[in-house]
Amino acid sequence: MLKKIFILGMIVVCLCGCDMRRVRTERGIKEYETDFSSVNAEIIQFSGMKNTEFEQSINADIEKDINSELVAFDSAATENCDNVRMGNKCVLNISWEEEYNDNDFISVVEEKYIYTGGAHGTTVRIPKNIDVSGGKVIKLSELFIDDGYISTLNRMINARMTEHSEEYKDLWAKPEIKESHQTDFYIDDDDLVIFFQPYDLSYYARGFVEFPLPLDDLSGYMKEEYRRLTI
Predict the structure, then answer these.
(1) Tell me, what's the pLDDT at 171?
(2) Averaged pLDDT for residues 44-69
(3) pTM exceeding the 0.85 threshold for the entire prediction
(4) Whose CA is closest to 185, among 121, 105, 114?
C-alpha cells in the first residue's frame, strides 16, 4: 500500500539560549500514515562538538535506531491491523527532550509510544547521557568511583520516598538500583534523576516513577571528571 510520507528537514533548535559553548541540537520529523497506521517520529542530531568523528558516529547511530524502529513498527502494524479496535490505527510516536546541556555533558531522553492493538499502548524512555569531552555515551556506573554508589543511591531513594510519601504511596514494589538502571537515568539541572519504566513499580497509568537525587550530595562518590556536573 502506498504511504503518504512527509519528511521535514532538520530544524536547528537552540535549547541552550545564547551560550554558544554548548552543543547545538537539531531536530527533524518523519511522518506518514496508511489506512491502518500513523507515525510521528522525531529525530535528534547534534552539531558543534569538537570531536567531529564522535559527533558523526552518534548522529548516525540515532538515525539508524529510528529507521530500525520504523521498519519494525511497519511490520507489526501490518500483522496486527485486524486486532486494532474499530476506528483506531496502530500508532508510533517518538519524541526527544533535552534535559541537560552544559559542562561538556548532554542528557537527552527519547520517549517512544507504540500502540498495535489491545487496551492501551506501551511507553518507554531511552536516555542518552553523553560525555562530550570524553566522546562517549556513558552508563550510570561510569559516573562513580566504585560499586558503593549502588547502596548510596538506594539509601537516597529510600530517604526521598520517606520525605515525599504522598508522591510514592501507590508503588507496589520497592525501588532498587538494578542492571537496567545503567541506562535509566539522566541529568536535570542540579539532580541525577533515576527513573523506572511504567509497570516496574506501579500501574501503567501512573507512568514513569522518578527519583531526583541532588548531585551535590553525590559529589564525593563521583569520579573527578564528572564532578563538573555539580558546578
Answers:
(1) 95
(2) 96
(3) yes
(4) 105
